[in-house]
Amino acid sequence: MLEMRDVTxxxxxxxxxxxxxxxxIGTGEFIGLGGRNGCGKTTVTRLLMGxxxxxxxxxxxxxxxxxxxxxxxxxxxxxxxxQRPERxxxxxxxxxxxxxGPEQLGRSREExxxxxxxxxxxxxxxxxAEAYPPNLNRGEKQRVAIASAxxxxxxxxxxxxxxxxxxxxxxxxxxxLLSRLHRDGLxxxxxxxxxxxxxxxxxxxxxxxxxxxxxDGTPQDLFTKREDLYELGLNRPDAVTxxxxxxxxxxxxxxxxxxxxxxxxxxxx
Length: 269
Ligand SMILES: Nc1ncnc2c1ncn2[C@@H]1O[C@H](COP(=O)(O)OP(=O)(O)OP(=O)(O)O)[C@@H](O)[C@H]1O
Hints:
38% of the residues lie in helices and 21% in strands. It has ten helices and ten strands. Strand 9 (204-208) and strand 10 (213-217) form a beta hairpin.
């Protein structure tokens, strides 16, 4: 489990970003992290990654305090997909890029080769193994970053707004990949402004409000019980609004689920 206990943080200008923030990420979870622009979502993940250090409070991994562990030391267990994934790539081919992590861990040449092959396969990148990473499109670059994490056998994968600016086919394909990796045991934390993703894919959603956690629970509770979604910078997904508007219909987490529920109501016609 990754944990933030009573973390307070500000950047060098001293403006408060997080105050007394607590959160847990249990292994095997699929969690969404949301909130208004600038509320501190990326900062939370940078603190978990070790790219920033708390001003006060602690970060734990499985009960061990890791405040002093640098980002490089955390990379074997936390993978990260940046908003602009090209910023984390610097090798001439996809294969070499994905090999970088296991090589740094001192794995043998055979171990590296088999970890890279498996990671490229898992992310559907075999056909791009010899491609030059800067020439790839954003979705492909994200897959390279995900493959790099998988090749390290990381337990946690953090993604910062991976679907922003993507069309719905790319979004569906990325979310299908993440769902598959999650089923295979990867723990996922995804920052997003897309409420459909929270509703359809996440088991738990954490929302940052005014410098600290404002909600932590299921998407169903968030979208059906909270009256302050607008103040939190969120909105209710269409599927939830529609399913709540039809008396007797169950909570629906996607438009497909809503359509199926309506068809069943109409006798399958
Ligand atoms: N390197 C930095 N130096 C100073 N202030 C920063 C730095 N990075 C972020 N901030 C500020 O810290 C606050 C939190 O930023 P952060 O990027 O964590 O928010 P966010 O919730 O991820 O935003 P968004 O949804 O727009 O991506 C913002 O006010 C931002 O301007």
